Amino acid sequence: MDMPEASEKLPFEPEILLTMQGRYAEAIREVNDVESVTMGLRLSTGEQRRHVFDFADGVRLVVSRDALAGHPVHIHLGGSAIRGSLVWENLAAGLLSPDDFAARCLERFRFISCNDGQRLDHFFPCENRPHWFGLWEGRRPAATFRAEG
How confident is the model at residue 124 (pLDDT cuts 50, 70, 90)? Predict the structure, then answer.
């Protein structure tokens, strides 16, 4: 299977969950102007460490608040797998389905955002590189993860 892989623009630097939770607020602090990125005036969020969250098993998340002219601000989550990682190998071998990988990415987002309740209503699978979008609800991350239920 031809596997799309995580952006290699930044080196793979896995962190512990507590560190990622501490960085989440920085990832969503500023609004990313999508048109400026498209025109080459700004770096993409995948090229800026503050937006990139690497997990030891090879899951890479990119989180941002994005604005596109004529549309409300939304939160954007992108997931990918680092080439050669356990997750990448399992996806390539069919041991991890794209749906299960997408669920893993969404779960990791809930962990780093401390389960802040931000809704991500629009899902785009994009060949093992899932993306979610949701209207920005102005939520701020809690200090630590809260389990639901």
Answer: confident
Residue 19 has pLDDT above 60, yes or no: yes
Strand partners, 48: none
Structural domain including 34 reads 17-135
Answer whether residue 2 is part of any domain: no
Query: HEC profile for 89-142?
Result: HHHHHCCCCHHHHHHHHHHHHHHHCCCCCCCCCEEECCCCCCEEEEECCCCCCC
Strands 59-67 and 31-33: parallel
- Taking only the tens place, the pLDDT of each residue in 51-99 is 999 999 999 999 999 888 888 888 999 999 999 999 999 999 999 999 8
CA distance linking residue 29 with residue 140, whole number of Å = 9
> 129-149, pLDDT tens digit by residue?
888 888 887 765 544 433 343
Which residue in this structure is represented by tokens 């890479």?
A: 60
Residue 36 token pair: 């400026």
Overall domain count for the chain: 1
Considering only the C-alpha atoms of the chain, give the largest distance between any 2 of them, rounded to a whole number of Å.
45
CA distances from 25 to 55, 97, 103, 114, 144 (A): 18, 31, 22, 10, 12
